[in-house]
Amino acid sequence: xxxxxxxxxxxxPAAMQRSQLLIIDLLRHACRRHPQQKIVSRRLExxxxxxTYVDCYQRSCQLAHALTxxxxxxxxxxxxxxxxxxxxxxxxxxxSGIGAVLHTVNPRLFAEQISWIINDAKDTWLFVDLxxxxxxxxxxxxxxxxxxxxxxxxxxxxPALTKVAQQVLNYEQLIQPQPNQFxxxxxxxxxxxxxxxxxxxxxxxxxxxxxxxxMVLHAxxxxxxxxxxxxxxxxxxxxVAMYHAGAWGAPYAAPLAGCKLVLPGAGMSxxxxxxxxxxxxxxxGLGVPTIWLTLHNYLAEQQASxxxxxxxxVGGAASPLGLVKTFAERYNIYWQPIWGMTxxxxxxxxxxxxxxxMALPKEQRYAIQTTAGRACFGVDMIIVDADGKPLPxxxxxxxxxxxxxxxxxxxxxxxxxxxxxxxGWLATGDIAVIDPQGYMKVVDRKKDVxxxxxxxxxxxxxxxxxxxxxxxxxxxxxxxxxxxxxERPLLLVVPKANTELNKQDIYQFLQxxxxxxxxxDDILIVTELPHTGTGKLVKNELRRQYQYYLMEQSS
Amino acid sequence: xxxxxxxxxxxxPAAMQRSQLLIIDLLRHACRRHPQQKIVSRRLExxxxxxTYVDCYQRSCQLAHALTxxxxxxxxxxxxxxxxxxxxxxxxxxxSGIGAVLHTVNPRLFAEQISWIINDAKDTWLFVDLxxxxxxxxxxxxxxxxxxxxxxxxxxxxPALTKVAQQVLNYEQLIQPQPNQFxxxxxxxxxxxxxxxxxxxxxxxxxxxxxxxxMVLHAxxxxxxxxxxxxxxxxxxxxVAMYHAGAWGAPYAAPLAGCKLVLPGAGMSxxxxxxxxxxxxxxxGLGVPTIWLTLHNYLAEQQASxxxxxxxxVGGAASPLGLVKTFAERYNIYWQPIWGMTxxxxxxxxxxxxxxxMALPKEQRYAIQTTAGRACFGVDMIIVDADGKPLPxxxxxxxxxxxxxxxxxxxxxxxxxxxxxxxGWLATGDIAVIDPQGYMKVVDRKKDVxxxxxxxxxxxxxxxxxxxxxxxxxxxxxxxxxxxxxERPLLLVVPKANTELNKQDIYQFLQxxxxxxxxxDDILIVTELPHTGTGKLVKNELRRQYQYYLMEQSS
Lengths: 555, 555
Ligand SMILES: Nc1ncnc2c1ncn2[C@@H]1O[C@H](COP(=O)(O)O)[C@@H](O)[C@H]1O
What we know:
ligase activity, forming carbon-sulfur bonds (chains A, B), AMP-binding_CS (chains A, B), globular, GMP Synthetase, Chain A, domain 3, homodimer, 26 strands, alpha/beta, Fatty-acyl-CoA synthase (chains A, B), AMP-bd_C_sf (chains A, B)
């Protein structure tokens, strides 16, 4: 499915209008169909801001005029360092609408990585939220292509920025005098629109350059019942950042569906989430497992609940059975797993609450909710062995996952990577199984797989089982050097607040649940584990730190 | 929105995979996601046939092999004269899948028109249902390009066809020996896939040549909540024919959604419909108003009901308020208006039961259900005056409707028509108003508008009001010659069975409901009105017949 064509033009063409799939039309559609629907944002200024899709569109038009006046040309890269707020949404539409490219930079990276990325992309203007002013001040002298910095605030909130080399402008001042209609260019749909770098755990970050076509088709899939099933009465709160894989396309999908969009700004605490969900009657949240663990911890502590919340869509990491259950049984919230990566739109798979699934016995359903789901229309998936030979979808064979489709990257920006882009497929680096119903499960990252005596041990599987222990808050399994077996698993555990936990408890718990040879060679009780800015475990760091741990123990 | 581009390639390309939107992937998607879902058909052989999407796919593969063996080449046109059954669905996939073009011929046309169309398209093979064998025998000597006739039956049901000049083959025999997997070509998505002639009331029929891309994007829109809102637990019964505008795309949309597809074959009677709806638990029907009137008449007569049926999607003609109400209040069925034409995919507009609509007072909602609905994502709409100048969407101004989008025709097949294809828009020939919420209402066909003393009278509007009279079964207003006003309206009315109805009743009913100068100059009570094969009134014929009626009366 979704094979790539080698024909530049059709051999036997039909006679359809050459209308293009362009990002700006997602917002124009919201304006004609749901003009009064709201975008609600927690601002960096501290308050809650609310306006309509028509307001958003008019300000995106003003931004387009302002960019044109600044001399921005089609194809120029424009950087943002910003949270999820309405101004960032305006950048998503205004910048791409004129044929320029919005480059959403991840502010959680190291300062050197950030300036490296901005220089690599040759970004010409940088839009920045108030909370990243210090960061920008720190890196300003490194930025070789940036002509000016635009602070996402009104002039009353504009800081001095005396130590910045480039010219500094104010966002509200910039757009305020501009007309609120714009004559958008009729671009080709394969034009570049959104640039996202993915922060590999090794080597330099790599850019994924998304097209208008890809983002529109991705938005249509996202709205469909195979992914988020968004409707005009949904209230969508993306906790995943607009600087990380386009907030999973939420800023594009929400206006297409005409649903209310609730943007958390910098408010990532349990309390801030609870407030916004309750006040805005959020029905659907998007985020990594850690975010929903944070919400759960807050709710448990406060004995609070969020009755409006019907579903959380959870990706970026595997869904632990413990949380799936807790959300179902304690909160009546459907935990909907999602799989994707920056290179894949990002959304590609999910397990939405389809009637057939909901009809299954509870435990069977929960098990499916810990998979990564099934591919939506637009994505083809295979698993291959080490030689690239396709493996059966039998729920047993595991191999590297390859994906293909109209919103999957065909190469990195300005970079070759023949290991990732193979025979018209994207090699994901995820080791997965696919069952006969099409449910895919990531059993490991290619580099996280533990190879013990030539056999594979899934670190994720052990972590999943650990997560079901009542006193475990988080756990991490890494492969470390072993004199005999080459690699053996080492388990690190963070206990829940105010609980007692020791090695023996965990061994006892694991003993009945996993094969003997999978039992970690040692267990360490720790107070915390390192995470990336987007909430993923940084296993590389732990691997480095504990690399020789077993060697030292045994010597 | 949805402007057509003049760029052949993007100026600043992104780096996405060149995966194409191809029709065959709709069915392949159903196979991996809903392999056991059913297609149920009333066969021409008389029985009910049921099989799965996997069966359908495997037989489409067999058909593709058979076509290849027959020497069918990409770009060849292959004709069908067939009802809605699973074999016709296999033609939709097998023929287009190999890059050939399925030409669905309307068997209800006059025999000369049918042979004219088949010759015009230079169709090479003709697939024909048992009920059209006589028709084929009649026209066989006229068919200059047809190499052979394939009867859609098994060999036990194959008739002799001795008077046919071309070779005659049997469908089941043809495909049976073939392998059930096929290596589909990676076509360009702009390739031709489906050819539908639209039978204009004047002049020769004109072909619309649809692309793979258009049909896939149309299917995605169709499945979305803006049009049919199809899900895996929907049971869809298209009463609209697969030879008429692709059964509104139902054969493409159903596998995409994974819903059960129920195909009525030649069973168009109230009884046949009732049987299929009840046995298959149909939730959603597609068809012209006449079809639902037929169902209602049957149910009323039999004192029967169809509790599974939740919605009927109704297009091809305006939705009469009387039926909207009856379906809501008597059957609890939502009457969902749809607008489209062969040149527009066909689906472009609808008024689905969105939460905001359902929250309105009943009478307001009914009023909206008599509009043609709002444009879905993918379709832009304007109304223009006689000079092509855009008119406001104020719910008052009426002008010719123009539409634009990726599944709208850019020209007729092998024909120029500068009056229809204007400035990148399709001029629809419908006179419409659009209100500020985006609801469009066809107030007339350009050629049905009555021009009385330089002012326009809407024949449709008068017909709509008539339909609310309890004793009126059907009505028709035409403009006929008048010595003073140039044209004046004449009303023809078919009373309901077993009811008394006279001119004066109707005049009284109309008096309070329309402007005085709109009142028809005369009213004729008739026993029936002429319809096209697809259930539309043939006003041209009536106009011809009654052209001088008022002249003769007044003289
Ligand atoms: N549902 C999931 N289950 C397991 N791993 C996931 C899931 N979703 C995302 N990931 C991981 O996150 C990676 C993508 O990271 P990123 O590009 O930063 O979004 C994938 O390649 C997976 O390794």
